[in-house]
Design a protein that fits this description.
There is one protein chain. It contains twelve helices and 14 strands. The chain has about 350 residues and is of the alpha/beta class. It has a single domain, classed as Alpha-Beta Barrel (TIM Barrel). The longest helix is centred in the first third of the chain and has 13 residues. The N and C termini lie far apart (about 40 Å). Bound molecules: S-adenosylmethionine (SAM). S-adenosylmethionine (SAM) binds next to β3 and β5.
Length: about 350
């Protein structure tokens, strides 16, 4: 039976950061709630070993956690990623979010090891803009990575695009891109300033919902989060064949900021690269080490993490007029967030 927290939220997923190293330096990055990433070349001594990652997954699968997402930093900087995936319990669906640069030449090995799904971060369709956002010259490599993932049978490949001031104007062309290219889907991720800082970059995500609702041929609502799926046709085809069936791509918006519904429907726990459970992306006061990582210590730490989970918006932060205020109950434990700006 899956463990449930005090707010009736079952924990069915786990998001494991395999490293805090990254070969990009994206201007918006929250590094899974831990502040800035390190460069790709730094030492790896704090990182969990493959065996430790697998032990955590084996333990949480005893509690019916059915999905794992590997992230980072850049998870593909780990040369033992294939081994980790291969040793992940069969009962778990395995996905990964990556910047895509290492997928060429490696995507098939990951699929052979058991990778089921992939998200590739792609915030721009323009080389210069991409370079500006990611501080990397890897634009072509990322496009090759997306192709490699599709060729390896990872269909659909979900593109992650962070929606904030510098990218908002490029949403129409990105939406058209997934509409035109079979196998691609798009996740528009609302910029989260809580950890990254720079709140002035945030834009009103409701405007993106409204624009997409107009742009879409069809909208479906998912049970989880009541999240909408917008099915969009290529712009050119749309103009020609307004009333007929056209091929469509799928676009979703992930909008967690100040969204109590989103938090009420959160079913995942996180693990940091250095082996600590973390109940909420936004919190900085809820890290829980797993001792020497014996199975029993991991079980105990997992139970305690689930027990102490609370919705960030709606409980940890509560409504205060038009804004949000820290709930008095958590004032003692609350630590200010590290900001990257
Ligand atoms: N390196 C991998 C990648 O590029 O996907 C995995 C790590 S990255 C931190 C995971 C996801 O977090 C990416 O899809 C990225 O777009 C998203 N992300 C990072 N910082 C964010 C922020 N401040 N707001 C919203 N999404 C963010």
């Amino acid at each position: 039976m899956a463990l449930e927290d005090e707010f009736n939220r079952e924990v069915t997923g786990i998001r494991v950061s395999l490293t805090d190293r990254c070969n990009f330096d994206c201007v918006y990055c929250h590094n899974e709630g831990l502040g800035d990433t390190r460069g790709p070349m730094d030492a790896q001594d704090e990182e969990m070993t493959a065996g430790e990652v697998v032990r955590i997954l084996e333990v949480v699968s005893e509690f019916d956690v059915e999905k794992v997402k590997f992230t980072g930093g850049e998870p593909m900087l780990r040369n033992d990623l294939e081994e980790i995936i291969q040793r992940t319990p069969d009962s778990m669906e395995v996905s990964m979010t990556t910047n895509g640069t290492f997928l060429p030449g490696r995507a098939q090995d990951l699929v052979d090891a058991g990778l089921d799904r992939v998200n590739v971060s792609q915030d721009a369709l323009d080389r210069e803009h991409f370079t500006h956002l990611t501080k990397s010259g890897a634009y072509d490599r990322v496009l090759e990575g997306v192709e490699a993932a599709l060729d390896a049978g990872l269909d659909p490949v979900k593109l992650n695009m962070v929606v904030f001031e510098p990218t908002a104007g490029y949403i129409p062309e990105m939406v058209d891109h997934v509409a035109k290219n079979n196998g691609l889907q798009l996740q528009l991720i609302e910029y989260m300033p809580e950890i990254s800082g720079n709140p002035q970059w945030a834009i009103d995500i409701e405007r993106v919902h409204d624009w997409l609702a107009e742009r879409a041929e069809r909208i479906e609502r998912r049970e989880m989060h009541g999240r909408a799926r917008y099915y969009v046709a290529p712009e050119a085809q749309r103009r020609r064949e307004q009333d007929s069936d056209v091929d469509t791509g799928m676009v979703e918006i992930v909008d967690p900021v100040e969204n109590a519904d989103f938090c009420a429907n959160c079913h995942r726990v996180r693990v940091t690269h250095d082996g600590k459970f973390k109940g909420c992306l936004n919190r900085h006061d809820d890290l829980r080490p797993m001792g020497e990582m014996t199975r029993e210590e991991i079980r105990e730490a997992f139970r305690a993490t689930v027990e102490s989970r609370v919705p960030y918006y709606g409980e940890y932060f509560i409504r205060d007029g038009d804004g949000w205020t820290l709930n008095e109950k958590y004032m003692e434990t609350h630590e200010p967030q590290p900001a990257n700006d």
